[in-house]
Amino acid sequence: MMFRRTRTPSTAAVPAEPLTSARIGWLMAVAACALLPHADHLPAWLNAVALLLFIWRLAQWKLGWAGASTVVKALVVIACCAGVTLTFGRLFGREPGVALLTLLLVLKLHELKSVRDGHTVVLLGYFMLLAAFLYSQTPAVAAALFGSMVVITAALIALTGPPAPVRALLRQSAWMLAQALPFMLVLFVLFPRVPGPLWGLPLDAFGARSGLSDSMSPGDISQLSLSGEIAFRARFDDAPPPARDLYWRGPVLTTFDGRTWRQGEAARRLNDGTPHAVIGPRVGYEVTLEPHGKNWLFALETVAGLPLGARVSDDWQVLGSEVVRARRRDRFESVPTSRPGREEWSAYLEAARRLPPGGNPRARALARQMHLDAGSDDETVDAALRLFRREAFVYTLTPPLLGEDGIDQFLFDSRRGFCEHYAGAFVFLMRAAGLPARVVTGYQGGERNEVDGFVVVRQSDAHAWAEVWLDGEGWRRVNPTAAILPSRVERGLADLPAGEPVPFVARADLGWLRDLRHRWEAANNAWNQWVLSYDQQKQRELLSRLGMAQPDWRTMTAWMAALCAVIAIALTLWALRRQIAADALARAWAGIDRALRPAGLGRETWEGPLDYAERIAALRPDLAAELRTACTLYADARYGHAAHAPAVRALRTHARALRRHRTPPRT
Known about the structure:
Layout: H1 21-35, H2 44-63, H3 70-88, H4 94-108, H5 115-132, H6 139-160, H7 166-190, E1 215-216, H8 220-224, E2 230-236, E3 247-253, E4 255-256, E5 261-262, E6 270-271, E7 283-289, E8 296-297, E9 299-300, E10 303-305, E11 311-313, E12 318-319, E13 328-334, H9 346-351, H10 361-374, H11 377-390, E14 394-395, H12 406-414, E15 416-417, H13 419-432, E16 437-444, E17 447-448, E18 455-458, E19 462-470, E20 474-478, H14 480-484, H15 487-491, H16 511-532, H17 536-545, H18 553-596, H19 609-619, H20 621-639, H21 644-661
Parallel strand pairs: 14-15
Antiparallel strand pairs: 1-5, 2-7, 2-18, 3-9, 3-16, 4-5, 6-11, 7-13, 8-12, 10-13, 11-12, 16-19, 17-18, 19-20
Helix pairs in contact: 1-2, 1-5, 1-6, 2-4, 3-4, 4-5, 5-6, 6-7, 7-18, 10-11, 10-13, 11-13, 18-20, 18-21, 19-20, 20-21
């Protein structure tokens, strides 16, 4: 027996649906919405290339220009890939990956021939929106990207459905996304959280945003203090201490080469607990730290209770177990009144007295004379502070440059400087007088946000102060800046002398701006705490408030499935109700036809409601008023914005009236 093999038609033989002009316009809008969020972090040359290719395609669509040839597109790809490699040094990673996606999207616009190509552009647009969250995840960015998603989804509807007005497609897209929001909320709250990010990212996806360093040269912190960017937020269990007591400890600098202060050996010796016992009333608080590319954690002096995995160096800097590449939240306890280090190691004290063998002779001589005149270590500290307080020293963010003997030039010539100048000069004087001393960097102060109660610490709060070791007392904190400008300790940079470049966010004369900023930052903080930082701990806290004491993944999955089913049923019932309402209107309109058809006055299938009313009015003037009213009601309900339920009731009333009067009166 012979069998003949039949061939099924190949899908490749089916002609692809071509793109209409309106659909090309939607795809151009997709590209614009997907590329704009990336314009500020792409190289300028790539932005220029993308803009030129976009304008070329726009002119091709509107003005009929010739399209790009295959050779031109190949040359553009090769040149741009080479440019990306030269710019970033590689072809893999966040920045080069987004750059190549940008190039792919704009070149795909020049290959649009069928609806299938349009689907590719839409998918690239969605992916570009997702990539934008790798750079910023603020509420403003999320809102802007949601608007872009509405446009891209409308383009997808335009590709798959019949032609429709722009406003109607945008409305349908927004309504579809709004229906997805309840499902998104359920999945966000109940989906089991996993430690770390949901997907792996290369290390370059996290940018270091802190300006503090493990070394300090004159001018470093003054440049950082011009930034209003938030370094971290703190929430205290009780009322926060006054700003003058908020010293957030960072790197401690113990070695000096004549110009630059650096961390010493003690910074590398870590302790699982505190180096010495801390006694005194404790202050509990929680710190939400922004990513800064170091493993430093910032806690109030003197730290007494540490989060899990944190350690403390011998000079009391708190360090995490890994680099802070994502926002993190830690719990601390501190004793602000404590003065640690009463029993300090002799080797460390000797290192804290060490100075370079030469340089700054006038400062050395001044320190020796002050110590001889004072008679005690405590009075030597007071003498140095009196020097800053009585002489014509000026606190400024724009000090003059210093030469080789910078300490001498600052103390005797310029007398203009920022906190690092005063802290460095003070520690130099103490060491030259024979006292152990060190420079401490970190942040001082913070602004309480009255909206959410958090204390906000900014990069403009970066500060440097000094510590002097006194026998029988331990390490005493000394802030030489307070001798020059006491308000710097009380109110930050708001009271700098006139003419200084005060950061805009620190200006005290703009109360309305401060209130507005507080509200905006409180909203951002709530977003950070409950959306971006919604981890396992936050999920357990929220679910326990909702009655799930010990939720496991099985319980959460069951609740997630049940709630999604309830939402789906509710949306289905709502859609059916709308359909039933529409059917009721159609049945009421059909009742008008049934009332008049026995009298030979039925509606033709091709006839609209208003035309029908006019035709019958010409035949039966006695029915004109009633029928015109009924037809107008139906047209407003069906094609306008009138409510269906009142129209249904009115149409039924008119149908009964027409039925009574359909027989013409006898003459």
